[in-house]
Amino acid sequence: MKGDFVAFLGRLATGARSRWLGCEPDTRQRIYFANHTSNLDALVLWSVLPSAVRALTRPVAARDYWTGGFVRPWLAREVFDAVLIERKKPTAHDNPLADMIVALGDRHSLILFPEGGRSSGPEPGPFKGGLHHLAVRRPDVEFVPCFIENMNRILPKGELLPVPVLGGVTFGTPIRVEPAETKPAFLERARRAVIALSNG
Prior knowledge:
The protein is of the alpha/beta class. The protein has a single domain (2-197), classed as Glycerol-3-phosphate (1)-acyltransferase (3-Layer(aba) Sandwich). It has nine helices and seven strands. Strands 1-7-6-2-5-3-4 form a seven-stranded mixed beta sheet, with helices on both faces. Helix 1 packs across helix 2 and helix 6 crosses helix 7 (130-137). The chain is globular and about 45 Å long.
């Protein structure tokens, strides 16, 4: 399958490995949410998932980036089955949250970067509210924090070719919205769950 081959190339190019500290690989529905420092992040997280899990997992990506050129649209459509969302000018008829709810359906999982863009700092920036809205709308889905390591060194911003530095993805313990927990409190707790994995 072309997806398995692309995943193999992704692991080969980045040396990425997975560490499951707070959960085990599973085909149950999940939102994998992670820090975002490189254009390789979605590929790497997707590629380290076991094949059966990967087949049901769809990266959420910016439509304006993934529809440019020839290779990116082909990868988004034919390999990743990506959920392409409008991030610059969302409207009631072009709503990223609605698109993600539909994409989840009753069997798929998603890869999400709640910062909304790449961060250049050592820690992820504030998370956007979409993660909270998803958690409220789909309490049956597991929300798994993930920390992606070294992607900003493997493919720094502005570079075209990766450099040989080992990368990795650490998967943490699923979280959910607690009773009476506010949106800001949940988003900060989710962000801290990702940061905590950097020391794991």
